[in-house]
Amino acid sequence: MPESKLHEYKAETEQLRSDLDSQIPAELIDSEPTIEAEAREGAEHGPGGEPSSSAWWQVRQYRWLDDSAGSSERAAQAIHDHLVGEGWSYSRERESADGPGVSDGYRRTDDDDGGWYVELTWAETTPDRAESLVLLIVSPMTVLGSDQPKSERTGPVD
After folding, report:
1. At 131, which CATH number?
2. Measured between alpha carbons, how far is 10 from 102 in angstroms, rounded to an integer?
3. Of the four, 83, 93, 119, 126, which is 20 to 30 A from 107 by CA?
């Protein structure tokens, strides 16, 4: 059985999350982020899968921004510029038909590890509405292994 890289991927996703969060201009930040991090298993296995089950590590960060018009778009643009400058490929993933939400995807393929994925979901300015930015980072696939890292949640409680 191949060795699990979940612990390595956990550390790498946290470093990437911190790096991307630091790209947001300080004047746009309104509060501390809420961060959810967890090992995820492949669709063919439910919870409690075998150590050989496909798995990945993912981190989702929710960040409320100040209420100035366009703060979400400016924050997303700063992260976009950084990712593209680091060689990540970009694609528009989704635009909400009934609201102001936009999701942009970024992919990077490493020779040894397969693909990394980052998704930014941001809001186009809507009058009288708080703006936010959601950052999702997904590691390449590995196997679950027998010593999985624990899920975590930090930040303000909703």
Report:
1. 3.30.530
2. 26
3. 126
